[in-house]
Amino acid sequence: MEKTDSILKSRELTKFTNLKLSEKYEAGGGNIFVSRNKTKQFDMSLFNKLFSRKNRTTKMDERNFSGVYIKDSFNERFTEEKLDAETLDGCFKMIESYFIENKIKRKIESPINHPVNLDQIDQEGFGFIMYCKAYGLGDAEATLFLALSFSDFLINKYGFKLYKDTKPEFQLRSMTLKYNKNDVVLSLYPFEYVTKVLTGNQTFSEMDKKLNSQLSEIPTKDELIDKFINFKEDQ
Asked: What is the model's pTM?
């Protein structure tokens, strides 16, 4: 368990225990960023509901916009971070040992942190949290291992980037994954998503499938800015 000890001693533990899972949408046009908060899974139909004419007059829709930011403000608030290689190696070894000790054959050989494999950890065997407790680790550490592993997968597959939020809206949202497509940004909070998975409300594979099918459908920044302007003019 030398790798596990290194994780617990690493400053990465301090940084990532502040993660909270949720999804957040930010759309930018030029130097403008429009943010939208959401507590359920990623679903692009929300954009259609938000901007559809029949919904423009409701107060609830107006509250969905959390702010408008210029790029300079974004750069001041968010600092890009890199996942520590040694920390990730420790996470992967914990995952690998879970499969071995539970005599479970993982469905995807590589990468080990594939969402299908992470779902196996959640759904098969005697439970990853219980496994970590057997080594004197708590719920936070177990969630951390999975959050970092899932984050690494999303970074490598889709091009997400990891950021530290210097002015988080909530205490547990200081770290976020962001996918930027021509200044239209999707933000995810991996620690909170892992919490949803561990409580049986989501799966890692579900998020992977949604991202795989819907990232290409993200509206352009001009479309979102035009809709935002029209939305405000109709109020």
From this structure: 0.71
